[in-house]
Amino acid sequence: RALFADYAAELADPEQRRLYEEEVAALERERGVEVRFVHPEAGYVLRTSQAGSRRCYLNVCSNPHVGAPQAHAEPGGHRWALPYSLAPGREELGRGGRRRLVYDVVFHPAALRLAACSARFRRLLSDTALEAVERHCAVQLDRANAAVLRGTKYKGVPQAPVIRTPLPGGAPPPPAAGESPLPPF
What we know:
Strands 2, 3, 6, 7, 8 and 9 form a six-stranded mixed sheet that branches. The chain starts with a helix and ends in a 19-residue tail after the last strand. It contains four helices and ten strands, in the order ααββββββββααββ. The radius of gyration is 20 Å and the shape is globular. About 20% of the residues are buried. It is an alpha+beta fold.
C-alpha cells in the first residue's frame, strides 16, 4: 500500500512529469519524430449523451501548440479554419460511482477568447468540437441536447496528449557508443 502511495505521489510530481516528457521526446527524436505535449488549459464544458444513453462531457480547452483560428472572406460572410487536437475519449467515475465518458478537444487560446466575446463563435466552436468527436471517435452524440455547463471549466483529470510531427530528413543517425540522448539519471 505504501509503495502504491509513493508511485501515485511520483506521478503527481511536476518535476517527475517534466523528466518523463523530456525522456519521451528524446526517444521519439531518435525515431525521427518531434513530440510536443499538449497540456489542456480549461475553457468550458459541453454536456451531452452518447447513443442516447451514456452521459458524456466534452472539455473545450486551449493550448498555444494548436494552430490559431483563421477567417477567410467569402461572399456572404467568413469561412473559419479551426485547428484542434483531440485526445481519445476516456472513462472516469463521477459522483455516486457512475461512469462517464470525457473527451478533450483542444483549440488555440485565441479561439476561446473569441468564443468568450461572441455567442455565435462559441456555437461554432462547440459544433466543431462535437463534430470532431463524432468523426474521429466514431460515436453518435446528442447534439440537440448538448449544453454548456455553467461555472464548470473542466471535467475529470487533465491528461496531456501529444502532437507528433516528422523531423525533416528523417531519423538522425544513432549516437556513438557510450552516448545517450536521454538526460543522466
